Amino acid sequence: MNAAGKPIGSITIRHFDEENKGFGYVSDDIPELGMALLPESRGQGLGTALMKEMFRGMKEQGIQKVSLSVAPENTAAMKLYERFGFQEVGVSGTSITMVADVI
Questions:
Q1: What is the pLDDT of residue 103?
Q2: Half-sphere exposure (Cβ direction) of 93: Cα atoms closer than 13 Å
Q3: Which residues does residue 100 pair with via DSSP β-bridges, in sequence order?
Q4: Which neighbouring-strand residues pair with 98?
Q5: What DSSP character marks residue 30?
Q6: How many other CB atoms are found less than 10 A from the CB of residue 98?
Q7: What's the pLDDT tens digit per position in 16-25?
Q8: Do the Cβ atoms of 10 and 36 come closer than 8 Å?
Q9: Of 7, 11, 14, 67, which is the most buried if we count CB atoms within 10 A?
Q10: Distance between CA 33 and CA 62 in Å, rounded?
Q11: Is 45 left (phi over 0), alpha (psi -120 to 50) or beta?
């Protein structure tokens, strides 16, 4: 939340299945991560903080892998994800699918 108490971003994980999958779908047992920050909130370390907290929570839940999709032109997000161990595993439409080990 910003100083005015308004949300500035979010991060979630969600399990999909073959019949209801997102662009980052890899398998039924690997949740897909989604993250967004308002443009004015980017570049301040908030994405890193959200990712650290999400990885901590996933470790506590025993989640072993997580996937996501990202537009290849979103170089800032790609760099962030790579710092958390995400590696490219495929392409879905115009998005790159990436997977990282959690534990």
A1: 78
A2: 8
A3: 66
A4: 68, 88
A5: S
A6: 24
A7: 998 998 889 9
A8: yes
A9: 67
A10: 15
A11: left
